[in-house]
Amino acid sequence: MIQRIQSVYLLIAAVASFLIFAFPLGEIMVQGAEFQFDVFGLEKITSETTETVFNTYLLVALSAIAGLISLADIFLFKNRKLQVKVAQGNMILNTLLLVGIFYFTDQATKTDGNSAMMHYQVGIVMPIIALIFLILANRSINKDEELVRSADRLR
To answer: What pTM value is reported for the model?
Structure first.
């Protein structure tokens, strides 16, 4: 049944995975220069233009794939065992996304001897929200599976 609570959880996880594109991950200040770090890369912000310092296509791909898998997982409601496995794989993917974000953040703040200050922003919590809702969805799917097994034993 598609109207189960795990479908809502998976939908929220998908929305959180896609919202990472809308919000910056952080702001980096290096000796008066301001850089904005988002899923697409690191951009130097000046008063007249923005200049891309480096791109992070891996983060874009991981986030898009995680959102699409969450959406596709909603429609696997007839095969709960497969739905659990896909949700677990998506949890691993979101964990890799978080590791990638912190890796690229670390790379962005490394300068040649200069001190860089990183200020995290809203976008950094989106993969964490997606991961939390994937865990909740997985628990709900397992509860449904246990309910079906107990009903089968009564027959």
So the answer is: 0.86
